[in-house]
Input
Amino acid sequence: MPLTAEALAARLQDTLGDKITQSRIALGELTIEVAAADWLEVARRLRDEPGLAFDMLIDLAGVDYSAYKDGAWAGRRFAVVLHLLSVAKNHRLRVRTFCPDDDFPVLPSLVEVWPAANWFEREAFDLFGIVFEGHPDLRRLLTDYGFIGHPFRKDFPLSGHVEMRYDPELKRVIYQPVTIEPREVTPRIVREDTYGDVGRG
Output
């Protein structure tokens, strides 16, 4: 029988103590927050403690909080979130930490703890620019060779910086400045009182 979120929170508190800076249960799921300095040690203990046994990393994702709450967010900009599963104990956990430096976000790599972190960390590096120290092969994963910037950052332009096209005269693909005019698309609003009324759009 899996532990309830409350029982898991108590067990984590007993095991990790003050390394947990915040703990929250929402929709029956537990999320803990830890300091970046404790990231690697906490990961090892979550995996190795017999009462926890989080042996499977399900997901690792970067987050950019710069536009969170319509810009009212006052905390650090970049975070990394783990989703963990204990196959033996049948319980789940979400773990979040914030990168200490907004200008150059760096965290220790978790590849030695969970090898599945490899490509997840590469994705977070590629899309958010979060550097994972100690990663065995930290290079871009999804964007093109020579891509400049990190497209999931909130300040990255929707149209990008460059576009590529095939040039029939040069007989190769070329990069050029973006020619698309920036625009904001506002969707047509459908209200129940006018739904299906052709005359009223």
